[in-house]
Amino acid sequence: MPVIPVDKPLGLTSHDVVNRARRALGTRRVGHTGTLDPLATGVLVLCVDDSTKLVQFMEADSKDYLAWIALGAGTPTLDAEGPVTEAVPVTPPDEGTVREVLSGFLGPQAQVPPQYSALQVGGQRAYAVARAGGQLDLPARNVTIHALDLLSVSSSVQEAPRAFSPGLEGWRPDPNGRTFDLPPPLGDFPTLLVRASVGSGTYLRSLARDVGAALGVPAHLAGLVRTRVGRFGLAGSVRVEDLAEAEGLPDLAALDFPRIEADEQLARALRQGKRPPSGVVGRHVVTRGGALVAVVDGNGEELRVVRAWA
Asked: What are the tens digits of pLDDT across the range 9-38?
């Protein structure tokens, strides 16, 4: 029942990775905890067999990214899939101006999702409607952006840093580090390299659009690498071609919640779907003899069993 962080390569959809994992691991029961677009790379967390029960507890994990934002060109997809439908001449902006703009996006906010997304309105997928030439009225979603660090301002995405090494504050440019694959650029546009830490549901493509708008120009996401999902980092992720040999993590190691050790009576009650005693605040895992019994959630007065394992 492993949880496996995978380093998704450029050009594959998240579903492509799931299908390859099913073949490599010999099981149909594979899920993931957060979609990555085909033009994005990095950490995609897979849950296999009974660990698919954990997906609901990990979808809200915060995530870290390296984002290349190209200024002066807008695209319908908000990324390098293109085509460029709006372009204006732009010179590389002053770093101080960019940092001031980025600081305005920190904290809780309402963000309008991209039209080319998997969101549904009235049973219709937004991307399907967009590909047919239409648009859905996508309501803004509440998201939280924890940190936005400007790493560089370059004359083009080709000139922007491409090699990185992990550090205490996240991945940083390093000529001797790992080189990341980015999609082919749509032109020579000034490019911001931003290290982002965001809450669940945040679209980096929308952030690129909105940062450009704050600077007074169209913009798109020229490249994206997800470097962390919850407790899973890129450095510890396995390549798709190595999935068959991947050991992954057991359920208890994957759930980063406080732990309660139950006695036999409480464990039995939880497995029968009964509520545990009150007094627990937040989400906790309940174990008995080292085995996962349940995940419980409460406000200190009312407590409910989110999921019990038989």
From this structure: 999 999 999 999 999 999 999 999 989 999
For the record, the structure tokens of 138 come out as 């996508």
Tokens 């605040």, residue? 281
Q: Which residue has the tokens 């407790």?
A: 231
Q: Is the pTM here over 0.85, yes or no?
A: yes
Residue 132 amino acid letter: A
What is the number of other CB atoms lying within 10 angstroms of the CB of residue 140? 11
Q: Catalytic residues, which ones? A: 37
Q: What domains are there in the chain, each with its CATH number? A: 3-61+232-250 (3.30.2350.10), 63-229 (3.30.2350.10), 257-308 (2.30.130.10)
DSSP letter string, the chain: --EEEEEEPTT--HHHHHHHHHHHHT-S-EEESS---TTEEEEEEEEEGGGGGGHHHHTT--EEEEEEEEESEE-TTSBTT----EE---PPPPHHHHHHHHHTT-EEEEEPPPSSSS-EETTEEHHHHHHTT-------EEEEEEEEEEEEEESSTTTS--EEE--TTS-EE-TTSEEPP-PPPSS---EEEEEEEE-TT--HHHHHHHHHHHHTS-EEEEEEEEEEETTEEGGGPEEGGGGGG---B-HHHH--S-EEE--HHHHHHHHTTPPPPS--EEEEEEEETTEEEEEEEEESS-EEEEEE--
